[in-house]
Please model this.
Amino acid sequence: MAATNINRVVLTGNLTRDPELRTTPSGTSVCSLRLACNTRRRDSSGEWADKPNYFDITVWGAQGENCANYLSKGRPVAVDGRLEWREWDDQQGNKRQAVDIIADSVQFLGSRDGGENGGRFATQSDVPADTGDFAKAPAGGAADDDIPF
Model:
């Protein structure tokens, strides 16, 4: 039996520039995004500091068109995709290589207008919080005879 390979990337961050939309000669839309994701680590003084990481993301087809139409620099997004390695020769004939992220889905986070956050995007979950999860348990637990299993 062959081993199963997994190539999955999940990132959340903010766009560092406006999306760039192109069209292939065959008419397929392709959108390029640049995403910044912070990693927290201790600096030389022992204080926590954010270190940005930058990722190039490619979004194909109608989803790429939506990214170009509705996203802009600074907008928070969540990306689910896969890594793809590529190589090419530059204009001087040198071999170049890169690892890109090919997006399977891009979720727009926050609101477009920024609203009451002074133009900043507020990240919001699309899953509402269930405050019942934080309710105190009733006093005096059930007897062992009341357990249904």
